[in-house]
């Protein structure tokens, strides 16, 4: 092999450069970064088990949507015995009052962009 | 520790702001349980009776459509091509084309007649919807809209013989004067119309147009209930419906 040493050195340099962002993130702790979520403003329980909510809130919301719009079943009794309106804006956001620092912060981190807010209203954005 | 006056003012001002902020947040976060005190209004065949003589007396009154459009975050566009309407008024001549003649009673001819979705027994819009985004509710005959399923194909707009359906050509949000937080807006690309205030019936309230009409020209009730006011009115008074020849069986009746 001609110039074997130089070729291998070149390859090594190339790989190191290629992997640099990964090492940089590992070293700076950025890779372990998990967004800090705002605590719910009231209640010490979610409408379902909290771990269930982390993974399945989108399914619950779809269920609520169908129950309300298609079945006309608007209210339910939560795990704490209270009556909840099955509503995205009126219920979820009444406890998680800070959408930006709860829903959005997690979604931004994960690259999820629910289109619900094209229509559903975030309480503080009532002025056009 | 020494602190000059300016610094003291600054720090105490910030502290007061912080306290006020915290307090207002607690207020906002206070528990407001959903209002389930009124039993839902239930019926088997909802209908609306419009007393045109009372409407006539009220002239150019638009209380019904204003109340409805405010309740449901309906936008207001300048260009009539973009218009979104749930309940609005048109001249008698237009509403009842087939009943009109040259020498029609002058007052009747020009009466501004409220029109809205007729919640037909046999709704052509439902037949053509490819996604079941619009359907007739079994329990009470309301022709419902599921805005989540609407793909904006506008077959229903063409199928409806009454022009009761509007399509969102533009993003409606900037054209809503005051957004009411408890009813979602719609977005560009979906069709919308009156749902007989299904969301209010579920909370035990009359439709908002009926509630808003000071003349009591709009009467809402259940046709399957023989003691209801709507049944009594239909029995005692002469009423007509729009385009009866089409066989759609409208559930909005006009007393002339």
How would you describe the overall organization of this protein?
Chain A is mainly alpha-helical. In chain A, about 50% of the residues lie in helices and about 5% in strands. Chain A has two domains: about 1-35; about 50-120, no CATH class. Chain A is elongated, with a radius of gyration of 23 Å. The N and C termini of chain A lie far apart (about 70 Å). The model of chain A has no long low-confidence stretch (mean pLDDT about 90). Chain B is α+β, with helices and mostly antiparallel strands and about 260 residues long. Helix content of chain B is about 30%, strand content about 15%. In chain B, the strands form four sheets. A four-stranded mixed sheet of chain B has the order 8-1-10-9. A two-stranded antiparallel sheet of chain B has the order 2-3. In chain B, strands 4-5 form a two-stranded antiparallel sheet. In chain B, β4 and β5 (about 145) form a beta hairpin. Residues about 15-30 of chain B have low confidence and may be disordered. The interface between A and B is medium-sized, with 28 and 32 residues.
Structural class of chain B: alpha+beta
Largest interface: A-B, 28 and 32 residues
Portion in strands of chain A: under 5%
Count of separate DSSP helical elements of chain A: 4
By DSSP, the count of extended strands of chain A is 2
> Over all CA atoms, what is the radius of gyration of chain B?
24 Å
Distance between the termini of chain B: 86 Å
Q: Which structural category fits the helices and strands of chain A? A: mainly alpha
Number of helices of chain B: 10
**Sheet with most strands of chain A:** 2 strands, antiparallel
Shape of chain B: globular
* CATH topology description of the largest domain in chain B: Alpha-Beta Plaits
Spans of chain B of at least 5 consecutive residues whose pLDDT stays below 50 are 17-31
Oligomer: heterodimer
Q: What are the secondary-structure elements of chain B, in order, as H or E?
A: HEHHEHHEHEEHEEHHEHEE
* Percentage of β-strand residues of chain B: 5-15%
Biggest sheet architecture of chain B? 4 strands, mixed
Number of domains of chain B: 2
Element string of chain A (H = helix, E = strand): HHEEHH
Cα distance spanning the termini of chain A: 70 Å
- Radius of gyration of chain A over all CA atoms, rounded: 23 Å
């Amino acid at each position: 092999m001609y110039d074997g040493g130089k070729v291998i050195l070149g390859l090594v340099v190339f790989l190191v450069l290629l992997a640099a962002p990964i090492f940089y993130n590992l070293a700076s702790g950025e890779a372990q970064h998990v967004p800090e979520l705002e605590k719910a403003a009231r209640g010490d329980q979610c409408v379902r088990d909290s771990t269930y909510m982390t993974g399945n809130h989108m399914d619950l919301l779809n269920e609520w949507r169908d129950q309300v719009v298609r079945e006309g079943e608007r209210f339910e009794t939560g795990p704490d015995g209270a009556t909840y309106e099955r509503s995205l804006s009126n219920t979820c956001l009444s406890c998680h009052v800070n959408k930006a620092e709860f829903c959005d912060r997690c979604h931004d981190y994960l690259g999820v962009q629910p289109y619900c807010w094209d229509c559903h209203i975030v309480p503080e954005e009532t002025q056009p | 520790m020494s602190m000059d006056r300016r610094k003291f003012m600054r720090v105490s001002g910030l502290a007061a702001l912080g306290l006020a902020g915290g307090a207002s947040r607690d207020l906002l976060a206070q528990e407001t349980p959903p209002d389930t005190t009124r039993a839902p209004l239930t019926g088997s065949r909802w209908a609306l009776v419009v007393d045109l003589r009372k409407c006539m007396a009220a002239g150019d009154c638009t209380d019904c459509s204003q109340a409805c459009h405010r309740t449901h975050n309906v936008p207001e566009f300048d260009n009539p091509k973009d218009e979104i309407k749930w309940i609005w008024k048109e001249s008698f001549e237009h509403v009842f084309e087939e009943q009109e003649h040259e020498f029609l009673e002058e007052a009747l001819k020009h009466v501004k007649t409220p029109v809205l979705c007729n919640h037909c027994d046999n709704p052509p819009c439902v037949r053509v919807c490819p996604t079941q985004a619009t359907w007739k509710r079994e329990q009470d005959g309301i022709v419902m809209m599921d805005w989540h399923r609407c793909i904006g194909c506008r077959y229903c707009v063409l199928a409806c013989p009454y022009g009761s359906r509007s399509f969102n050509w533009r993003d409606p949000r900037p054209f809503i004067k005051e957004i009411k937080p408890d009813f979602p807006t719609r977005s560009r690309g979906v069709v919308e119309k009156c749902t007989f205030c299904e969301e209010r019936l579920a909370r035990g309230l009359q439709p908002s147009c009926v509630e808003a009409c000071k003349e009591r020209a709009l009467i809402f009730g259940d046709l399957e209930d023989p003691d209801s006011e709507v049944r009594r009115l239909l029995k005692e008074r002469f009423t007509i419906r729009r385009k009866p020849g089409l066989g759609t069986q409208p559930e909005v009746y006009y007393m002339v």
